[in-house]
Amino acid sequence: MSVALFVVLALIYLLTFSGEFSSIDELAMYAGAESLAQAGQFVTPQLTFAPFHNPVGVIEPGQSLAAAPLYALAQQFIGVNNIHAVLLLNVFVTALTAVTIFNLLRRAQYTATVACAVALCFGLATTAWPYARYFLREPLTGLLIAVAAWRLVVWRQSGRLWPLAGCCVTIACATAVKVSAAIVAPVFVVVMAFSASSRRARLWILPGAAGVLLAGAGLFLWRYGGQLPLAGYTVGYSLSDFVARSYGQLFSPAKGIAFFSPVLLIALPGWLDLWRRQRALVLLSLGALLATLYAYGNNPVWYGGWTWGPRFIIPLLPLLVLPLAGVLSSRLAVVRALALAGAGFSALMQLAAATSAWEPAASQMDVAHDPGLAWHDLRLWTRSPALFQLTHWRPEWLNLLWWHPMSDGRVYVDLLLAALLALMLAGALVGLVWSLNSRRLERRTFAIAAGAGAVLVIAGCGLLLARGYDATRDYPGLTLAEARQIAALVSAPSDSSYTLATVSNEFHMYYWLGLLKGRFMHYWYSPAAVDGFEPVLSSPVPADRLRLVVDRVHLLPEHSGYHLQFWLNRQAYPMGGEWVGGFEVFQYMLPADVLPARAVSYTWSNNIALVSFAQQAGQAYAGQALRLEFEFERVGPISENYSWFVHLAGADGRVIVARDGPPQFGAASTTLWKANERVPDRCAFVIPPDTPPGVYIIRAGFVSPTAGRIPLLNPADGAPADYVVLEALQVLPAP
Fold first, then answer.
1. Please, where are the H alpha helices in 572-706?
2. DSSP state, 306?
3. What angle is formed at CA 377 by the lines to CA 383 and CA 242, rounded to 5 degrees?
4. Residue 479's CB: how many other CB atoms inside 10 A?
5. Cβ neighbours around 344 below 10 Å, total
6. What is the dotted CATH code of the domain comprising 597-732?
7. What are the sequence ranges of the domains in the chain?
8. Cβ atoms within 10 Å, residue 169
9. What are the pLDDT digits (tens) for 92-149?
10. Is the sign of the CA dihedral 503, 507, 508, 511 positive or negative?
C-alpha cells in the first residue's frame, strides 16, 4: 500500500506539474544544485545580480544537495530541461511524506484504510499539493520532521536505539534544509526524555540532542553571521505580536492555514483519539506548532513573503493532519461521511491552486504589499486567496506544463502528455484499490507490485521530461526560439567546459538557463554593477572560454549594460559576438599563460602607433583558437573613433578569419586616448576546422568611419600600404 500511495500521488503531481519557479528563493536553491553538480562546491555566483533587484538571503545547502543528482542526470540528455528535472524533487518528497504518514499511523494502530485515507488527504487536501509544484524547501523539511517522528515512535515501541539515532540524525538534516527547523529539536528532546524507559536510552538522548542543537547553532551562525537571531527573541519579544502573528498564520483570511487547508479543522476532534493511542505524537505535534509560531511570532514577515498560504507552517502539515485518523475511525457513519465530505471540499480548493497561477488570487489580498490591509478581519473570508481562487476560477488561469499561456497570448497545449499521464494514473489507482482489498502479500507479489510502481513513476517522469522540453515557457522579450538559439550558442560539447556570464536585471527570464548543457559555471550580474567582476576569471570549473549574454531588452533607462562587457574586453580575449533578438551573445578566450611580446614600430596617418605585438604560437591546428595581444600609443591628435581590423589571410590574400571593431571592442574609444598613453588590446579567433594546411599571415590596420582604411606611414617595403603584416602562422591539419 505504501508503494501504491507513492505512485498515485507522484503521478497526480506529475499531471499538475508547472515547470516554473515562483520566487527568487527557488532560483537560489537551483543555483546551489547547479554548482554542486558542475563544480562540486556550494557556491551561488548565479545570484550576484540579486542584491540590486531581488534580494535573497543565504540559503541552506540541504535542498540543493538533494536536487543535485537530478540536475546531473538531466545534463546527460540534450532534450531535457534542467529546471524541470530539479522541480521533480518535491514531487517525490511530497509523495514520500504521505507514505511516512501512512506508516506512522499504522504504528499508532489505525487500520490500513484509515491510514491510507489520511495520507491521501495530506497529499491532496492540504497545501502540500500546491507546494509539490515548486522548488521551495518547506516540503523537504516536512518530510524529514515526519520521518523523525516516525523513528521516535518506532523507538518507543521497540526500545532499540537505532531508531532513536535515526530520529536525531533526521532532525539535524532538517536544519540543513531549513535552519529554522532547529526550533523543533528541543521539542523532540523533551518528548524523548519523557518517553525514555531506561537509563541507557537517556544516556543516548543527551549526546544526540547536543549534536542536533550544535548542528542547528552552526547553521544559524553560517547563515546569519555572528549572532543567533532566535536568541535575541527573549529580549524585547512582544507578546502582542506573537499572538497576532500566530493568529495570522493559523486563522486569518489572508494567510491562515485553516483557510488554505480546512481539512485540518475537520481533524481537530481527532486529537483526543490520537492522545489515547500515541501521547508522544500529540505532544510532539502541538509542541512543534507552538515552537514554530514562537519562532516566527517576532518576524515582521510572518506571512512568509508573497507565497501561497502560510509558508512557515508547511513543514508541520504531516503532523497536523494525523488526528484526522481519529475522526475517520469514528463509529458514527455520519461523522465519517461529514469528514470525507469536508476533506473533498478541501481537496477541491487544492485542485484549483495546484492547476492555476496563484498570482491573481494572492494579489487581490496581498499582505506583503498592502500594510493597511485588514488581514485579520474574518469578515474578509470571501477574499481569502484560497477561497477566491476556487470561487473565481477561470480557464485562462490554467498553469500546467501541458497547458499554459505563452508571452504572446497563445496557449501551449499538449493533450497527449496529459492523456498518457492520466492513463498511468488510472493504472496506479487500480493498484491502490487492489492493495486496500488484499491480504498480506508474499515477497514475490510485493516485488512485482513494487517493480510495476517503479516503472509507472519512471515512465511518467521520463515522458514529462521528454515532452516537457518543447513545453518550456517563454517571457516577454525572449521567445522560446531565441532562448534555444542562445542556449545553443552558449553550450559547449560534453568534453569541454566554459564560463558563462549573464548581464540582466530581470529574474523572470531565468527559464532559458534550463536549456544549457555542458560543464560550466554561471555568473549573473546586474547592469547596475560597475565592479567586482574578477571571479569570472577564476571559476572553480576550469575553462578557457567564456560566454557573455547581455540582456538589452529589459535594461532600465539608468543602466548602460556595458560595464562587464568592457571589463572583459580589457581582461580577456574577445572573439566576436552576435545578436539574438534583443540579446547580445559574446565569446571570449580567457587569459592563460603570458604571451611572448615583441616590440614593433608601425604608425598610421591617424597618429596611432602599434608598439608591441604578441602571438600565442607560431603554429596551430585547424579548429584551434589563437590569442593575440596588441599595444598602441597615441603620438598626436586623434579626431575620430577608429576601428581596428585583424585578418588571418592566405598567400593569395584571401581572408580566412576577420576581427573588426573599435579597440577593446568599444571599451577604449580612440578619441579618449591621452597623449603618449599605452592602450592594450586583446582578441582571439578560431581557425576554421576546414582550413587547408599551410602558411598564413596575420595582418592588421585601422579604418575610418568616413574615409575607409587609414594609410600606414612606414610600411616595411617602403611602398604605400594600409595594413601591416605582423606574423606568419603555420596551420596544421586538425588532429
1. none
2. S
3. 120
4. 16
5. 13
6. 2.60.40.2550
7. 101-108+136-399, 480-589, 597-732
8. 18
9. 999 999 999 999 999 999 999 999 999 999 999 999 999 999 999 999 999 999 999 9
10. positive
